[in-house]
Amino acid sequence: MNTRFLALELRRAVRNGRYLIFTVVLPTVMFLLFINLYGGAGQRFQNGLSVTTSLMMNMALFGVIAGPLAIGARIAVERGSGWQRQLRLTPLSGAGYLFTKGALGMLVALPGIVLVSIVGAVKGVELGAGQWLGVLGTLWLGAVPFVLFGIVVGLLASADGMQAITGLASMLFGLLGGIWIPADVAPEWLQSVMKVLPTYWIKQLTEAPLVSGVDVKTALLVIGAWVVGLSVVAARRFRADSARA
Amino acid sequence: MTQATAVRTGAAVALSGLHKRFGEVRAVDGIDLVISPGEVVALLGPNGAGKSTTVDMLLGLSTPDSGEISVFGRTPREAVKAGAVSAMLQSGALLEDATVAEAVEMIAALHREPMPVQRALELAGIADLAKRKCTKISGGQTQRVRFALALVSDPDLLVLDEPTVAMDVETRRQFWQTMRAYTDTGRTVLFATHYLEEAEEYADRVVLMRTGRIVADGSVAQVRATVSGRTLRAVVPGVSRHVLAGLPGVRAAETRGDQVTLTCSDSDAALRGLLALQPATHDIEINALGLEDAFLALTGEDVR
């Protein structure tokens, strides 16, 4: 991969004001808002997780959805505007282009996670070094399905449609993933819907280093299915796109 | 010259038997073309003549249905990868969230041996726009940014697809001045245009296209000679177009009812032949053909 090109892409993405607000700052703001709302530090959920820790992880996960999703979806804009045609007149291959977007999506997911964790630590989240590493690592890797989802949207949607789709998808992934409302309080039918989404299982996995009884196997299975499924759709769509030309 | 010979003798571009159709439309219908290094060639023709389709295939942006393409002895994609060819594309906005310099820098980052970004901007005459957002510049300036994007890979062959289409007269003149400074360094240039005067003024060689085929190919003077001549208009009762087209000195014939228009290379011979064949011919009118008319006649749909 061309790291210099990636760095220039990153600069372009980071300068985007919307990225900074939604992906980096908003999760932390929501976190601060919610810990005051939910009675603050000291209280614990049924699974033994403190409210502060749980909210910190939920909000970090929220940040992991929107940013990576938006990066991939920008492919739709570059496809429509003719920039992609310009790129085809360079040594960059089509696969190289998609990998760059993928790497970019992973990179933009990082600052939001780190910021909310720092604020979390300040606000009294106490984890061991290994636990921090496990939680942060899982959160970050949790961005993979959303990066891929964004790329699929970018390859399929028009530049106009992309905005609506990413907005709706971010909301649904968050809402039905149990970020805003705990899955336990949802009716059973809704719970089965939630358990189809990657968000729910990523949330489960992030809690795995801290609590017992997490169904890691199912979590990996569901997330893996999303990753493989989205990759296949992206690859096929991309091939069809190239063949048409 | 055959494709193999052309490639062996180091042609910049060698196209042979190139075909491309979109559904029922034969966009490119059998093109053979060899361009030597250092030539500045105009690909001239009206909209829909197949210029852009040819250019796209030459750049590897689309694949021909049949035929061979060689760019400096390589496939188009290999030539692009090696930085031997680059292009200024007709369509295509720039990045809305980047400055002019950043957009050029991104393209430069992808090439193996680019020229410095600053130099590309200077050559394209937009050094003063480096820090401007790509969206905050005029149409003519945007074309110059595209020119810089094409230059930054320091290509041996530069392909321009209707480069001056969004420019006013003054900007167009400036653009070609910049362009000429570049071609003076011995680069090969192929530019598609539908402006006759651009082809006349800036190209060493003109390739005229119509409905997917090359109808004339030569130096500006040669093409001018090919297309110069006279038109003969007359009323000729009950005659077929094929008979008229077969008359001596007639290059093309057109009929509308009994009204006949002959494009002639030798109008005297054509008139003698016509009167001998059709004594009832009347209302004869002969006019000298301007280069513009001749161009239109050659590239017009109905001519055979």
TrEMBL record, chain A:
Name of the featured protein: ABC transporter permease
InterPro entries registered for this protein in UniProt: ABC2_TM, ABC_2_transport, Nod_factor_ABC_transporter
Keywords: Antibiotic resistance, Membrane, Transmembrane, Transmembrane helix
Source organism, top-level taxon: Bacteria
Naturally occurring in which organism (per UniProt): Lentzea tibetensis
GO molecular function: ABC-type transporter activity
A GO biological process held by the record: response to antibiotic
GO terms for cellular component: ATP-binding cassette (ABC) transporter complex
Membrane topology: Multi-pass membrane protein
ABC-2 type transporter transmembrane domain residues: 9-202
Subcellular location: Membrane
Principal location: membrane
Transmembrane spans: 20-39, 59-77, 98-120, 132-157, 164-183, 218-235
UniProt keyword annotation of Ligase present: no
TrEMBL record, chain B:
Keyword Lipoprotein found: no
Domain ABC transporter positions: 13-236
GO biological process, one term: response to antibiotic
Primary location: membrane
Membrane topology: Peripheral membrane protein
Subcellular location: Cell membrane
GO MF, any single term: ATP binding
Gene Ontology CC annotations of this record: plasma membrane
Pfam families for the chain: ABC_tran
Keyword list, A-Z: Antibiotic resistance, ATP-binding, Nucleotide-binding, Transport
PANTHER family recorded: ABC TRANSPORTER ATP-BINDING PROTEIN
Protein name: ABC transporter ATP-binding protein
Lineage of source species: Bacteria, Bacillati, Actinomycetota, Actinomycetes, Pseudonocardiales
